[in-house]
Amino acid sequence: MKAISFLLLVTANFLFMTSSIAGVIFNNNGLSGGSRWDASEREVFGVGERSLAGGLRYSVQGGSFEAYRDMFSWNEQPTVNAFTYTVQSAFDVWTTVDPISGLGTNLRFVADLDTAVVGDFRGNGQINRAGAEIDLLAKTDAYFWNEGNTNRQGESWFSTLGSTVDLTSGTKNYAGSSAIIGADISLNSNPGAIYDIDLFFRLLTHEIGHALGFGDVDVFNTRFIDDNYDGTAASLNNSWASSVNVFNPAESPLKMYNVGNTPQADGVNILMESYGLGISATNPINNPIPLSNDEYGIRQFLYPFISVPEPSSMALLFLALLLLYTSKRRLLLNNNF
Ligand SMILES: [Zn+2]
């Protein structure tokens, strides 16, 4: 098999509060393709298991949440518990049920701090796929910032294999896609970049979106996936996750749009906006679940979820059928009398 590795990058810069755009994926051709983590267990030479199987394993530079916290400067330093909870929550919000469509997800994340992170720490450093599946790094010098930069910002890179993947919906060997096999998330740790816990959470949540294959909606604004964009901000806000063809996302009744600066309009507040991270009155910085309809839509597009009845309701159904059967039997028995 010929394995091709692509490098991709994106950045979120909180300081430029200029704008916003909808749902964007990487390495796609229209609705075809996209980069995803494989739903089925996949061994990658030299770095081990790389897939959603068993959850996506992440680690932090320094080997502990405390050590990672201490690499950043804080307005008010969070406790280790608060920081740990914040990092875990930044992953776990990606597993939340979409409140509009009711769709859940197969995505799961597992802290794997015993695996040491491996990053590229040269100036302009990019990706090293080794380490955990997702490595969280602190860098004073990265692709998008240099020593002394005080912007509170992050950048994420992932490495892919040109290969089919299995989808979370059960589709095998989905063509045109590429498999993400390692991601590095770096946050600016220059001493002048002073964080508070809410911004750290929001920024990290955004960067984790990149590690899952989400693009910046206001950078790749000609590649916006939506169902009904008509030039208005309102048409970007509606929920379309239920429209995704779970067995073949490329066949979904969706389109690619050029949304220009529309996402930067009032009332469009998308977490995956590079500029501003969607922070607004309707999606405030302390929002514990800052995902918008567009994030839930792209999540369903990349990692299609098939809802199944809850075991409890299945059991109730069975019980109801059993009762029905029993009462019918009693009736029959009664008739026999
Ligand atoms: Zn970004």
Automatic annotation (TrEMBL):
The chain crosses the membrane at residues 301-325. Keywords: Membrane, Transmembrane, Transmembrane helix. InterPro entries: Ice-binding_C, MetalloPept_cat_dom_sf. It comes from the Bacteria. Residues 307-330 form the Ice-binding protein C-terminal domain. This is Ice-binding protein C-terminal domain-containing protein. It comes from Thalassotalea profundi.
